[in-house]
Amino acid sequence: MKNCKNTNLIITSFSSRAAAECFSTFKNLNIYCFDFFGDLDLKEIVDYSFSLKEKKLVFKTEELYKAIKKFLVQNKNQNYYLIYGSDWDNHPELLYKLEQFENLKLRGNSAAVISKLNKKESLKNLFQIAENFGFKTPELFLSHKKIINFQRQAKNDFLIKPYHSGGGLEIKTIKELKNKEKKFKDIFTKKKDDFYLEEFIEGENRSCQFAADGENAEIMAFTRELKAAEVNPYLKKSFKYAGNILIKEEKKEIEIIEKFIKNITSRYSLQGINGIDYIKNNQGIFFIELNPRFTAAVELLIPFFQEDFLKIYLKNEVANDYLIKYLQKDFAFSTKLIYYAEQNFKLKHDLRKIFQRIKNNKIANNFIDSKIEIKDLPIKGEKFDKGDPVFTLIIKTKNKNCYLEIKNLLFSEFGKYFKEQS
Prior knowledge:
Layout: E1 3-13, H1 17-23, E2 27-35, H2 40-43, E3 48-51, H3 61-74, E4 80-84, H4 92-99, E5 104-106, H5 111-117, H6 120-132, E6 140-141, H7 144-148, E7 158-162, E8 172-173, H8 174-177, H9 181-189, E9 195-199, E10 204-213, E11 217-227, H10 228-231, E12 241-247, H11 251-268, E13 271-281, E14 284-291, H12 302-314, H13 322-328, E15 333-340, E16 345-346, H14 351-363, E17 371-375, E18 383-384, E19 389-397, H15 400-421
Parallel strand pairs: 1-2, 1-4, 2-3, 4-5
Antiparallel strand pairs: 6-9, 7-8, 7-9, 10-11, 10-13, 11-12, 12-15, 13-14, 15-19, 16-18, 17-19
Helix pairs in contact: 4-5, 14-15
């Protein structure tokens, strides 16, 4: 499906550049993006880009809905497909509103599916289903009554997780808040319906991307998921999403995951590309969560499945050979990596030129066989606070050691540069 016949596609997400890149090579496909950032390299590959940052609007998905609504009304003689990513899965009420537009077809999971998955009962059910198919699961405290009775002297640490979040935002540990009595009480009194407790499991964070057609599901790939604290020592205790590394999973784990995703797909009528997060340690694999929407890791799959993305979303067609293709491929050490600001600063120069200079002076001669790209480029003059995402790196190299050398060198050089701008 290399060509489309005058097809209009709206992509909307916290950041839509990665998804847009997955679809940008199809001829006659017009792409319209609505997101928070409106990065420079996004604007270069799409037909239209609306960003909350550029419009100086509050970073809320409700504002994206308003912009899309206005766009659809102004272009009521045109028909559009819409694919959504992060944070829209926390707003089924907005997806319901989008489904009412006659000139729009929502692709991926419907508002009804997202609404059902957002219920606390469904969260409990997902963990039970995961156990039934061989996953281990962390201990959960979902009800306010159980949380109130929770003993903070429990043997294991627990995560305080918001019911509606994404990218690891707002996740804290009990130990982290033990000495912050007021904040601890606020979470479990004033915000008692917004959070739940999940046992903290030590191990490697992993994810599985899979395609679904409402009845059947097929595994596409596996990744190791990176957290900001692991990637950058300046961001200790941060659970923010910081990227992915492509990996190959073992047969036993594949069988467990395959049975699980097929069951939840038929049970909840999942469609499009979805993801599950899990933790692997010497006890087995622990189910953590379902992401029922396009995930940021999917752009690492472009070399494998770019021809399949439109079939999955626009035709609701799922092939049965994704995993075979993936496991047969030698993808070396492929990673996506997000750089978060280490201090407040204002970007005074073209980041692409800074990257090229660092690459030429520090990397080119030592890592000849490595491919390194910079993505999600901010516009000159943008301001950043400590902890804000600044850019993304896509690195393909020989092995983990080469990756770490490249990552540490680039982060160090960019850190020095941004410190001068602060």
